[in-house]
Write a structure and sequence with these properties.
Layout: E1 7-9, H1 14-22, E2 28-29, H2 44-60, E3 68-78, E4 81-83, H3 89-99, E5 103-114, E6 117-129, H4 134-143, E7 163-167, H5 170-174, H6 178-188
Parallel strand pairs: 1-2, 1-3
Antiparallel strand pairs: 3-4, 3-5, 5-6, 6-7
Cofactor: a divalent metal cation
InterPro entries: ITPase-like_fam, Maf-like
Keywords: Hydrolase
Length: 190
Amino acid sequence: MSTEKVLVLASRSPRRTELLTSVGVNHIVQPADIDESPLPNEDPVVYVQRISREKAQVVQSRVQSDVVVLAADTTVDIDGVILGQPVDTDHARAMLLQLSGRTHQVHTGVTVLSGNQEHSQVVSSEVTFLALTPELLDWYLGTGESAGKAGAYAIQGHGAALVEATVGSMSNIIGLPLDETLLLLAAATE
């Protein structure tokens, strides 16, 4: 981002921070800490767009008016059902079994606020899981990696062992589609 404006990332996700840092985008972190519960029968794409917008708005209301706020929200979508973060190991196991041997969508809503301007986009990618054996499932759950991850897996970590194929942006699957985010940031700082 070629601007003198400060960029505030409205997220506590270490993955988003790592992704931004990997492309040389300096930023500070200020999590929004909002209720991320889906609304009844909410479409997964509408959900991530709404949550990313709400995160950005909450953080923008707390910071100086001359900063740029970036927020994102990622969810796993299987058959139109939102798979958020598991509440415990049993919930993670149920999610992973639901994904086993199937293709699902990963959607990330990205919102950039700069003054009165809003730039946003939803990026979707596909992930196909291997048919998970009981041994592979037990091993993965034993890593503890599924805690705090949408869909109960992290493709950038041990979760890569569960994946047969991907289509689309890998950084989106990790939690922040870099190409699209950089374009939104450029538009917001023109």
